[in-house]
Amino acid sequence: MVIVSDPGDEMKPIEVEDKWEPSFMRLSPSKINTYMKCPREFYYKYIAKIPEKKTIHLFRGTLVHAVLEDLFKKQFKSFKAWEDGDPAAWMQDQFETRWAKDIDSKGWLWELHTDEEMAAMRVETEELLQNFVASVDKKLNEMVEWKIYKSKYQAWNCVAPKYAEKWVKSHDYAVIGIVDAVCNDFDGGTTLLDYKTSKRYGPYLPEDYYRQLIVYAFLYTLEMGEMPKFVGVSYLRFDDTFYVKVNQPVLDEAKELIKMVHDCLKERMEVEEKYEQVPQNLCKWCSFHKSNGGPCDAVVPKWKPKGKSYKKSTVKSENVVLSEEEFLAHTEIPEEEGMVKGKVVEEAPIKNTVWDD
User: Fold this and answer.
1) Which of 51-60, 243-252, 331-340 has the highest mean pLDDT?
2) Residues 29, 214 contacting (CB under 8 angstroms)
3) 232 DSSP assignment
4) 57 three-state secondary structure
């Protein structure tokens, strides 16, 4: 599925206004999305820096991204290495080693999740990684069978990313991000991909994912001097990708979004009261809400059906349109960071010369 934006594929130079300056904080797509969701949560997380509660979902996501980065960046840099090696066996070894190190070593996770939940997550993660390897082999075979390429060697350049875990940043706009994969097509066009282990899959692109993608496109264009053709979310669970067509209006939208958040931070500075609460159903899973031991006292709104009130009917079923918030209220707990109940884990900060907020 491709989401095509407004016309205007010709790139124009991106310039920073002479008088505009960023705020006191370096932003990232996740910070921008947190601010857009709830400024008060942003304050607790990035200004007050209150320790968050962590769950198996957070550690699993980190594990998957680390393994996929090493897959092409270290172990299988060429098709010859892929063909001569055993990617499935390597993936299995990486999974078992990292699961023991990153998950099994944290015994307190079993206090938060049942044995059945932990076992199911282990099986799901193993299958997710093995499915990724199988999908690469499937694409290589089909591209040759369908005569898109003459050989798997040629197809490899389309399937394997040019970069894995590509850091993109801008000092002028004080924003940084990590693109999971940068791929080139047979016409030389560039596509940026972000891997998702989330279950948020359907015939649409969530707004926070869209914001993340266009910021990546903006940063990549600034850093590489080349506008990517597409940016996409790759749902690893379902081997499906949703794309956004990149053009000048998309880059302008990302720039204005970044500037807007910086301007809001400059206005609010570090005053908690200036970061308004946004009461929503998701508050129930926020680490900072009072129901989870946090300082936020936002009142979670009660769910109400849309439309006029009606009496009970003998009709067996009725069509009801639900908003995304209402839908989440009646589905399982989301697996996004900061939205699930968990345990506070104090860990020593890891210094990074590129990104150290």
Assistant:
1) 243-252
2) no
3) E
4) helix
Q: 89 with 75: CB under 8 angstroms? A: no
Amino acid at 25: M
Cβ-defined contacts of 345-348 (< 8 Å, 24+):
345/51, 345/54, 345/106, 345/108, 346/51
pLDDT grade for 354, boundaries at 50, 70 and 90: very low
- Spatial separation of the C-alpha atoms in residues 139 and 242, rounded to whole Å: 17
Give the side-chain half-sphere CA count within 13 A for 295.
12
Lowest mean pLDDT among 61-70, 99-108, 333-342: 333-342
**How many other C-beta atoms can be found within 10 angstroms of the C-beta atom of residue 287?**
24
Q: Does residue 203 contact residue 1 with C-beta atoms inside 8 Å?
A: yes
Tell me the residue ranges of DSSP E strands in the chain.
2-3, 53-54, 163-170, 175-184, 190-196, 230-235, 240-245, 343-344
Q: Where is 107: in which H helix or E strand?
A: none
In our burial notation (b when 16+ CB lie closer than 10 A, e otherwise), range 53-70 reads bbbbbbbbbebbbebbbb
b vs e for 117-130, b when ≥16 Cβ sit within 10 Å of the residue's Cβ? ebeebbeebeebbe
Q: Which tokens is 24 given?
A: 């006191």
Tell me if 189 sits within 8 A of 246, measured CB to CB.
no
CB 41 within 8 A of CB 338: yes
pLDDT surpassing 70 at residue 131: yes
The tokens 């345990």 sit on which residue?
343
Query: How far, in Å, are 103, 195, 275 from residue 110 at the CA level?
Result: 10, 27, 35
Do 158 and 185 touch, CB atoms closer than 8 A?
yes
Structure tokens at 124: 């799901």
Q: Domains (ranges, CATH) in the chain? A: 2-267 (3.90.320)
Question: What would the mean pLDDT of 87-98 be, rounded to a whole number?
Answer: 98
> Hey, what's the torsion of the CAs at 142, 71, 244, 23, to 10 degrees?
-170
Instruction: For the beta carbon of residue 93, count every other beta carbon within 10 angstroms.
Output: 11
Q: Distance between CA 338 and CA 349 in Å, rounded?
A: 18
